[in-house]
Specification:
Length: about 325
């Protein structure tokens, strides 16, 4: 299996790379945060591939898509006859990931009744199949969310003890608009990948196309960029990759509500990093290092969000 890549040369992506390199060899639980489409699963797969569990299974579970009434069975498994329709024993996602990594995507959408069950598994490393007894599991958990879980804890929507269990080692993936230096590398990567997938010629990306891409705010982040490149790979006929401006115009100005969500999420990321760094901006472990930003960039974002230098104002 091909080792996943964290594509890009921006300081932000370099920061994510450093964080992954530090945590991957351990068995620590990782919480990957970021907007939809930023590449959180790529980070999770990279952590797995570079860990001692890399030869083991990587099992993904989308907590926001678990079927109602069967979510516990999906995660923890069930015995034959445990409920109507359970004709045979079935291993849940935790057992399937034994010896490897379980990726819990959209963990912020986990139903309230499942949160204490997940907490118990993280604490005891034992699952209980529905209708059965305890089963030990050796699993490394990487969770991901596009929600502000700390805010959800304060609002009573997410268990605080579960949040602390998941947030052992946080990795924040910045939105594409905050790392424009990555755009050419990502576009080139997707071009090679998708040209091969669709048996299309390998074209070059001219400067005019890169400029057109750079002018877009990418509300759908890396996933949206990949879709645009795929469409261009399919329809381009000449030697150059051509992107129709109409493909980008519909999303050129994100809705006001989405913009407010982005701003709130970014401010929360900055405050979390500042608190975790004890107010330090510079050096290893400083807030700028944690966020993968240059200190001058961090100061600019702090000014934009009205965040002062006094830690008393970060509560």
């Amino acid at each position: 299996m091909t080792t996943p890549e964290l594509i890009g040369s921006s300081p932000a992506t370099a920061g994510v790379r450093r964080a992954v390199a530090r945590v991957a060899p351990t068995d620590a639980t990782v919480l990957v945060t970021g907007e939809t489409g930023t590449g959180k699963e790529v980070v999770a797969r990279t952590v797995h591939a570079r860990s001692r569990r890399g030869a083991g299974p990587f099992v993904a579970a989308n907590c926001g898509a678990l079927p109602a009434g069967l979510a516990a069975a999906e995660l923890f498994g069930h015995e034959a006859g445990a409920f109507t329709g359970a004709a045979r024993r079935r291993a849940g996602r935790f057992e399937q990931a034994h010896g490897g990594t379980l990726f819990l995507d959209e963990v912020g959408e986990l139903p309230p009744d499942l949160q204490p069950l997940l907490l118990r598994v993280l604490q005891e490393r034992v699952v209980e199949r529905l209708g059965g007894g305890p089963v030990p599991v050796d699993v490394r958990v990487v969770a991901a969310t596009n929600r502000d879980l700390a805010a959800d804890v304060r609002a009573g929507r997410f268990r605080a003890d579960l949040f602390y269990r998941l947030n052992v080692f946080p990795v924040a993936v910045p939105p594409l608009r905050d790392r424009p230096a990555d755009l050419p590398d990502l576009a080139e990567h997707f071009l090679r990948e998708l040209a091969a997938a669709h048996a299309r010629p390998a074209r070059r990306i001219p400067q005019r196309t890169l400029q057109r891409l750079a002018s877009h705010p990418w509300p759908g982040n890396v996933r949206e960029l990949r879709n645009v490149v795929e469409r261009a790979v399919i329809v381009s006929d000449g030697p150059d990759l051509e992107v129709d401006p109409a493909w980008l115009a519909a999303d050129a100005a994100p809705p006001a509500e989405t913009g407010r969500t982005w701003a709130a999420a970014e401010k929360a990321r900055l405050l979390d990093a500042l608190r975790a760094a004890g107010g330090r901006i510079y050096g290893p472990g400083g807030a700028a290092h944690r966020l993968g930003l240059r200190p001058t960039t961090l100061y600019g974002k702090m000014r934009k969000h009205g965040i002062g230098k006094d830690p008393a104002s970060w509560r």
